Amino acid sequence: MTVREGFVVALVAVGFFFTLSGVVGILRMPDLYTRIQCSSKTITMGALPALAAVVVGEGPVSPYGSRALLVAFLLLVVNPLSSHALARAAYKTGVPMWKGAVMDQVGQPRPDGTDRR
Amino acid sequence: MTGTTFEVAALAGLSLAALLLVRLAKGPTVSDRLVAVNTMATQATLAVIFFAAFADRTIYLDVALWLCSFSYLATVVWARYLERGLL
User: Fold this and answer.
1) ipTM score for this prediction
2) How far is CA B20 from the centre of its chain?
3) Angle at A36 between CA A65 and CA B30, to 5 degrees
4) Which residues of B touch A81 (CB under 8 A)?
């Protein structure tokens, strides 16, 4: 195993474990907003090491490496955009927060009526 | 060695996307399902890129680029519908 192959395996493993934690979060989190957080941050940060593995393994000027860089850039632009749009629309239409939520800084009282603004 | 790693990575990403089918089935709101669909699209993009590098077929890279560029449209259109009530 050369050094380059070692880097590829390590990057793929890091990306897999980040993505696994993100998927577990999407399955286990209690309300929509925490699920959106898992979907946007952890999944993006799991995809970037995996794409870096392609860049390292194939070289940045090969067809695969250059497309992997392009997809990484698109993911960094598009994933926060869709997550933000979805969270904003869900909040405006009153999707309930988790009962144990501590704070809502935008301005609604908590689901059980107490106000901790 | 690198090809085998890419193949394993593609299959692992697809198995994680299959786990998300649970959230897609349970809901409870459409927005929850869209979170799962968005993540599955990202995983599908990665799996296609890994498979293209494994099988040495550059034609599949266009599929990955298309998926990555347009998978957010479902979420954005749904958010616009929720906020404004029109498409």
Assistant:
1) 0.86
2) 11
3) 110
4) 72, 76
